[in-house]
Amino acid sequence: MRFVIVTGMSGAGKTSVLKFLEDINFFCVDNIPPALLPKFAELCYEQEGEIERVAMGIDIRGGKLFNDLFEVLSDLQHKGYEYEILFLDASDDVLIKRYKETRRSHPLSKNGSIQEGIQKEREILKDVKRKATYIIDTSQILTRQLKEQINRIFVENQSYENLMITVQSFGFKYGIPADSDLVFDVRFLPNPFYIQELKEMTGNDEPVSSYVMSFEESRTFLKKLVDMLEFLIPHYIKEGKNSLVISIGCTGGKHRSVTLTNALYNALGKDGHTLLLKHNDIEKDSRHKK
């Protein structure tokens, strides 16, 4: 039986994940007191194959009962019950924005600010996060992308790294994305903008991508970039980093950066990394002209 404990920061998407798991035939229970976990696990295992997948939602709404979680997990292991922990996280800024949009108060900030509640929760959950089997940072991903990650782990049974890598293109004229961890400038490459038949196309169009990648410097840059990232990524994972945002920029974010971003995404994808692809400014030039 597959027994999954779903926990993490309030507002990071636990409710959505439980719905996704339910859609793929998990028996889901939300906000169960940790002290009841061993008995519930025992009941599930006694069903003799009738229940093969179980997901339990646990968070700090359980109050003081949440403090019993580690003792309970130890008890589960002692009884021979295997379990996985799926931890959902998001940046403070994103969590604050979500709370403001829904006009809900944080469970730990009834008499204070949302920020204070988030800080208290992070402190409470830090040891749980360290023990997590999977960590998904939902700061920059869409609902459908989160569902894809859940399917990858629990349906396709693919290997999953607790490092979400976002590869994104941007235009320097619109500013470097604030969430960038690594920024690369490809304005040194020949610009398709000055070729009439390519000007209105983007790096997603084959003629543009073929033109950009026809140059030796483009291919060499890509190879060196992939080599560097393949060196860095294992070290980021080792140090516990959960999110890595790689930004590639050109002047307008339409041709060269899009081409190289797509190429990097495809190259890293071959090695099984958990990836997201974004093109921030690809349509901005055309919108500004209208």
Automatic annotation (TrEMBL):
It comes from Anaerotignum faecicola. PANTHER family: RNASE ADAPTER PROTEIN RAPZ. InterPro entries: P-loop_NTPase (IPR027417), RapZ-like (IPR005337), RapZ-like_N (IPR053930), RapZ_C (IPR053931). The keyword Lipid metabolism does not apply. GO terms for molecular function: ATP binding; GTP binding. Residues 1-157 form the RapZ-like N-terminal domain. SUPFAM superfamilies: P-loop containing nucleoside triphosphate hydrolases. ATP binds at G8, M9, S10, G11, A12, G13, K14, T15. This is Nucleotide-binding protein. GTP binds at D59, I60, R61, G62. Keywords: ATP-binding, GTP-binding, Nucleotide-binding. The keyword Kinase does not apply. Residues 164-283 form the RapZ C-terminal domain.
